[in-house]
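Appendix B, record 7
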Amino acid sequence: MKTTIFHSNRTGLNSPWIMGQCVIWSSVLILSLSTAVVLRYTDLQTSSLPWITFLINASSIFTGGLISGKRTERNGWIMGGIQGILYTLILMIIGFLAFDTSLRVEPLIFGICSFGLGALGGMIGINLSKK
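Structure tokens (predicted):
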């Protein structure tokens, strides 16, 4: 049996790839909807929205990396980091197709930070997994 750094015998929803992305996107959705409700019914200013968005993305990527690292067999940091990169690429594709944005430096910096947060989550997740 050939093993690689991406080896996992789990498939479907048990796959670290799929579950990591599901956790990232579901937590972004839930936290974004919660933020919208808070903004609507409180006197929270929209000037704090960039920081809230940053925290939503950072916590979602970290959690997705943690879950994918916990579900993989080894190299959790790579699995978590790739989850962050994949999330960034999907956001860039959505931005390009839906809003006609051009390639700028900010998404590349976001991708590097996403890799770091996902890798950190993956490192912690692999150490939390039952062996």
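Remarks on this record: Helices lie at 16-41, 49-71, 76-99, 105-128. The chain has a mean pLDDT of 85.
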